[in-house]
């Protein structure tokens, strides 16, 4: 019988730097290769193109894949489930070590290519192969990778299934069970149910929000919240500035549509806005109204801000980076008085994003909000819904798939603990059928 091993390379001690390797006899499939964003004070506007992988491993910013030297076998494929940096951000630093193609959805593939082109330290020559949700890629004669459509806070996200001679392994990092998405299709429940009926040896699953009760609200709710905050006011002439994740294309689309209803010109600002939105537009995922403006470079952003102040804040809706208080981001520069755009008493600043739960990020965000308030800004925070499954979504997926073994990933010890408690409610036994792994550990599944 083919021996199956699960290698926890990164993302098992923390949120971020996700990387898992599945050993199938003499073959290996790598799942994700991400960054840990808070480790180097970085974010969607990050530039680590000149840094060495060893330096980044030492910082804890990318997975320590030196463990792979101890694993016998050949890496046949690198599979990425979606385009967030905590899942693809380490590809420019690590992928060249493996003579294997990178398989991902078309939007993710475009973002990976951008990352590889920006890299200055290593030459990454791996082929990038786009695979649509619902598609299957034959990795070897007896190993295939299947993509199942799912929703998350970025477009073109999938769950990956590694089909092996011993059975299927499902990799479910990251997802939400959103039946009314504002972009793309609802999750492919029919395929998930069929997969569960066919038998799944192991499910590797994110645990990020496993401790939050109930189910994750739909993106449709966030769209309504954005519209309510932007349009639901009698003070419609004040300056308004909104910030969200540059990679959250459905949210940006909702903001741009609301700006149209308000009679304001949407202005996207930030290098990452240009990257993510530009790729979505070029691939036909997003159609932008003709009046949308987009500026990535600092001088262009400041020139646009100058024009906005001259022509009147009430005519524009700047959509900017900086919701986590990242040093050098546009909203931070506005708060510090480093741009021509000045915040006046009564101006609104809307955060369509949550605070990433790490002490450094929370401190940065607190400092940002304090500076904005000192200038007289009215703060609207958490106009947002999560892209990660809550406890009852996890319960639903677990019951649907009914895997023999379940392994929480993409989270810290507390998050894994919440997931394990829920799995125990479903009849799983810690150490026997539900497994707690730490970075650098290998779990062999006896079939």
UniProtKB/TrEMBL annotation:
Keywords: Cytoplasm, Exonuclease, Hydrolase, Metal-binding, Nuclease, RNA-binding, Zinc
Location within or outside the cell: Cytoplasm
Matches recorded under InterPro entries: Metallo-B-lactamas, RibonucZ/Hydroxyglut_hydro, RMMBL, RNase_J, RNase_J_2, RNase_J_arc, RNase_J_b_CASP, RNase_J_CS
Superkingdom to which the source organism belongs: Archaea
Domain Metallo-beta-lactamase: 16-233
UniProt cofactor(s): Zn(2+)
Pfam families: Lactamase_B_2, RMMBL, RNase_J_b_CASP
Assigned GO CC terms: cytoplasm
Note describing how the cofactor binds: Binds 2 Zn(2+) ions per subunit. It is not clear if Zn(2+) or Mg(2+) is physiologically important.
GO biological process: RNA catabolic process
GO terms assigned for molecular function: 5'-3' RNA exonuclease activity; RNA binding; zinc ion binding
Binding site residues for Zn(2+) 2: 86-87, 174, 410
Entry's EC annotation: 3.1.-.-
Its biological purpose: An RNase that has 5'-3' exonuclease activity. May be involved in RNA degradation.
HAMAP family recorded: RNase_J_arch (MF_01492)
Family membership: Belongs to the metallo-beta-lactamase superfamily. RNA-metabolizing metallo-beta-lactamase-like family. Archaeal RNase J subfamily.
Protein name: Ribonuclease J
Organism, scientific name: Methanosarcina flavescens
Gene name as annotated: rnj
């Amino acid at each position: 019988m083919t021996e199956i091993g699960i290698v926890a390379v990164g993302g098992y001690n923390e949120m971020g730097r996700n990387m898992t390797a599945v050993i199938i006899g003499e073959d290996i499939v790598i799942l994700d290769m991400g960054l840990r964003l808070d480790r180097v004070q970085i974010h969607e506007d990050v530039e680590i193109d000149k840094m060495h992988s060893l330096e980044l491993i030492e910082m804890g910013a990318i997975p320590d894949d030196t463990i792979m030297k101890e694993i016998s076998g050949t890496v046949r494929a690198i599979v990425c489930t979606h385009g967030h940096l905590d899942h693809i951000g380490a590809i420019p630093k690590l992928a060249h070590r493996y003579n294997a193609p990178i398989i991902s959805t078309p939007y993710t593939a475009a973002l990976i290519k951008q990352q590889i082109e920006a890299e200055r330290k290593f030459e990454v020559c791996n082929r990038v192969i786009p695979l649509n949700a619902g598609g299957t890629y034959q990795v070897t004669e007896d190993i295939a990778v299947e993509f199942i459509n799912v929703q998350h806070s970025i477009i073109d996200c999938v769950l990956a299934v590694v089909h092996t001679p011993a059975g299927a392994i499902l990799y479910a990092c990251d997802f939400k069970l959103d039946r009314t998405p504002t972009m793309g299709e609802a999750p492919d429940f029919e395929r998930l149910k069929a997969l569960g009926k066919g038998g799944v040896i192991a499910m590797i699953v994110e645990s990020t929000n496993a401790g939050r009760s109930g189910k994750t609200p739909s993106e449709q709710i966030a769209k309504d919240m954005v519209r309510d905050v932007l349009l639901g006011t009698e003070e419609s002439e004040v300056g308004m500035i909104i910030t969200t994740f540059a990679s959250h294309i459905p949210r940006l689309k909702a903001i741009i549509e609301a700006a149209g209803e308000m009679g304001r010109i949407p202005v996207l600002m930030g290098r990452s806005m240009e990257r993510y939105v530009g790729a979505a537009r070029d691939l036909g995922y997003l159609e932008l109204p003709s009046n949308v403006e987009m500026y990535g470079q600092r001088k262009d952003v400041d020139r646009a801000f100058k024009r906005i102040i001259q022509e009147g804040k009430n005519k524009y809706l700047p959509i900017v980076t900086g919701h986590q208080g990242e040093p050098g981001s546009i909203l931070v520069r506005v708060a510090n008085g480093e741009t021509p755009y000045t915040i006046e008493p009564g101006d609104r600043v809307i955060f369509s994003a949550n605070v990433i739960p790490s002490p450094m990020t929370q401190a940065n965000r607190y400092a940002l909000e304090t500076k904005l308030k000192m200038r007289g800004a009215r703060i609207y925070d958490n106009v947002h819904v999560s892209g990660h499954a809550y406890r009852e979504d996890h319960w639903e997926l677990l019951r649907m798939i009914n895997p023999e073994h379940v392994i929480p990933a993409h989270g810290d010890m507390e998050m894994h603990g919440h997931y394990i408690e829920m799995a125990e409610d479903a009849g799983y036994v810690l150490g026997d059928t539900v497994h707690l792994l730490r970075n650098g550990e290998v779990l062999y599944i006896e079939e």
